[in-house]
Each structure stands twice: as structure tokens, then as C-alpha cells.
Design goal:
Elements (H helix, E strand, L loop, with lengths): L2 E3 L6 E3 L1 E4 L7 H5 L5 H13 L4 E3 L8 H9 L8 E6 L14 H15 L4 E6 L8 H13 L3 E7 L3 H14 L4 E7 L11 H8 L2 E5 L35 H18 L3 H10 L4 E6 L4 H8 L8 H11 L7 H7 L6 H7 L5
Parallel strand pairs: 3-4, 3-10, 4-5, 5-6, 6-7, 7-8, 8-9, 9-10
Antiparallel strand pairs: 1-2
Length: 350
């Protein structure tokens, strides 16, 4: 297992992280086929044996049950792992049971600590933007948690570039704990993060942790243009993540992925994961599974690297169009581009 530096922090995390959104039998986990405690223990054991040192959860996964299961499993070996969790979404019916206010964040953190049976969280992430709470209040609350020893590092998730940049600027202006990472959706099917989130991360030294790298199962090789789908496919239900706007383009990508995977003797899932693992700025990719077989297949993606020609094929078939101002920058600013700019524009200059 490869270990990578998380942003500008001194923390080294495994290139693959274990996601626990499927742990539990309530809320979101139930919709994903809920993994019971006993099976979850086996998955954690398997991941740790493979060298995974980062486990990611959130307070709202299975209405808190995911954290509880993880806390039970890690008793006696808490020091062997880095625990990451998140807060923002409703954890009750009250008017202050959601959001990123000081009131909710501190209560949410203390509740997560109890469920996880630990005295600290290694990476505490705000799960989503809260446009009604001043960013100064959110960052001050996170800074309090860091100074109290309840949290070691802080990060964000699902922010747009201006949200993240505003938070970084506020942290520097007020001398508050700075986000070391952002957790984002980034896959072969959806590369919109390359417009701004990836360049910003490289420019500002923010680690990228990728969630749902297999696009909710779409990149597993089980979906066919002829309408073939797996029996337990979440996309045959009312699950809407990720949204698909162009089915023809999606299947073009899936078929190219399958071809590349076949040529390398790997599964489509492994190949899609290897593709994202090799992208600029990516620190860790969160993999989740319901069975040991699924997890073993995903873990194997860290054992090999895509060759440049195969990567170029996948890049070409899945490329995002250059929207303004990027097409203009590619045409007119190519003589003075930063490393961050080049992650999007490097292969598209005149």
C-alpha cells in the first residue's frame, strides 16, 4: 500500500481508504444493502491487513449506526487507524440539529466521539456547505475542537471552489485551523472537479480524498448498453447519485473502460480506481464494499499502474469540454500557466 501526504499536513494516509457508508441497517445504509456488525468487522480486518490506515465515516450514515459499529470494531486497536468522520446533515428534528453552526458542530463532534468510543477524531470534515452560517463561525468552532484535542485535522467536503477558497482565506486572516483536505466526487464518468477543485488543491496544498470513485457502481462493468443491469443495482431504485445526463456518452466511456481493463487483465472496477489514483492532486480514494470479494477486487487497484497510452485513451473518451474562461485561457494564456492550471489545460494548448 502506498502512503501519501495529506495536503500540507504532516499526516500520511493510505492511497485507498475504507468507506463505511454501507455499515448499519438504517437510513442511507439500508438503501445500500446495510452491512451488519459481523460482516463489517471482516471488511475492516481485510482492509487493515492490506495496509489501509484511513477509515472514513459520517454521523449521518445509518443515522449514527455506522459510527457505532466502527467504534465497536476498533476497540483495542484504535491507534492502528486514522478515523475520519463528518458533520452537517440533520441528526434530529430540532431547528439546530443540522448545519455548521458552533452549536451544532460541537454537539455533533461530541456525539461522534461517543459513538466511535474514542477521545479524538483524526480528520473532522464538514460534510457540505452551509450558506446560512458565517464561515467565520464554522471555522472558529472547528478551531476550538482542535485546541481542545477532540480533533487533530479539519477538512471539508462537497464545496465549490469559491466556498473552499473563502474558507482558506478566512482561516489565514483569523489564524484559525486550516482545511488540510477536501473530499469530493471525482470519477472517470464525471471529471468536473478538474475545472477548479483540482487546480485549487494543487495550488493551495489541499489533499483530495475521492468519494464514490466507481460512480455508485456504474463503473463496475455490470451495466451494458443493451439494458443489462445487476439485480441489486442502486440505480434501478430512486437513488440519484451520480446524475446521468448523457446515457450515450456514459456507455461510450464504460465500453472503453472495459476494453482497457481486458487488455490489462483487470476488472473494470480496478481499472477505474487505478485511473483516479493516478490523477494529479489525488491523495486517497475511498472504497466501500458489501462483501469481502468486492473489497478484495477494489484493494487490488493499488497494486498496479495504468500505462500512459491506456490513460490517454480514458482521458480522451471522458474529457470534459472547456467552458469559459478555460477555452480562452488555453488559447491566450498558455505561456504563463501554473501547475494547477496545467492539470486541466496542459493537454489542450494550441
Amino acid at each position: 500500500m502506498e502512503y501519501r501526504q495529506l495536503g500540507r499536513s504532516g499526516l500520511r494516509v493510505s492511497a485507498l481508504a475504507l468507506g463505511t457508508m454501507t455499515f448499519g441497517d438504517a437510513g442511507t445504509a439500508a438503501a445500500l444493502g446495510g452491512v451488519a456488525s459481523r460482516e463489517a468487522r471482516g471488511l475492516v480486518d481485510q482492509a487493515l491487513e492490506a495496509g489501509v490506515n484511513l477509515i472514513d465515516t459520517a454521523d449521518m450514515y445509518a443515522d449514527g449506526r455506522s459510527e457505532e459499529i466502527l467504534g465497536e470494531i476498533l476497540q483495542g486497536r484504535r491507534d492502528d487507524v486514522l478515523l475520519a468522520t463528518k458533520a452537517r446533515f440533520p441528526m434530529g428534528a430540532g431547528p439546530n440539529d443540522a448545519g455548521l453552526s458552533r452549536h451544532h458542530l460541537i454537539r455533533a463532534c461530541e456525539a461522534s466521539l461517543r459513538r466511535l468510543r474514542t477521545d479524538h477524531i483524526d480528520l473532522y470534515q464538514v460534510h457540505e456547505r452551509d450558506g446560512l452560517t458565517p464561515v467565520e463561525e464554522t471555522l472558529a468552532a472547528l478551531d476550538t475542537l482542535v485546541h481542545d484535542g477532540k480533533v487533530r485535522y479539519v477538512g471539508c467536503s462537497n464545496h465549490s471552489a469559491w466556498h473552499l477558497m473563502k474558507a482558506l482565506g478566512t482561516s489565514e486572516r483569523l489564524g484559525l485551523a486550516r482545511y488540510v483536505s477536501q473530499q469530493i466526487y471525482y470519477t472517470l464518468l464525471h471529471r468536473e472537479a478538474e475545472y477548479e477543485l483540482v487546480p485549487l488543491s494543487i495550488d493551495e496544498g489541499i489533499g483530495i480524498i475521492v468519494w464514490s470513485p466507481l460512480a455508485g457502481g456504474l463503473l463496475t462493468g455490470k451495466y451494458r448498453r443493451d439494458g443489462t443491469v445487476p439485480n441489486d443495482a442502486r440505480h434501478t431504485t430512486d437513488w440519484t447519485e451520480p446524475p446521468i445526463y448523457d446515457m450515450s456518452r456514459m456507455f461510450d466511456i464504460l465500453e472503453t473502460l472495459a476494453d482497457v481493463a481486458r487488455e490489462h487483465g483487470h476488472s473494470s472496477a480496478q481499472t477505474a480506481l487505478a485511473y483516479i489514483l493516478g490523477k494529479p492532486g489525488v491523495t486517497s480514494v475511498v472504497i466501500g464494499a458489501r462483501t469481502g470479494e468486492q473489497l478484495a477486487d477494489n484493494l487490488a487497484s493499488a497494486t498496479w499502474t495504468l500505462d500512459p497510452a491506456s490513460r490517454a485513451r480514458l482521458d480522451e473518451i471522458s474529457a470534459v469540454p472547456l467552458i469559459y474562461p478555460y477555452w480562452h485561457q488555453a488559447k491566450s494564456a498558455g505561456d504563463r500557466l501554473s501547475p494547477g492550471d496545467l492539470t486541466l489545460l496542459g493537454g489542450r494548448l494550441p
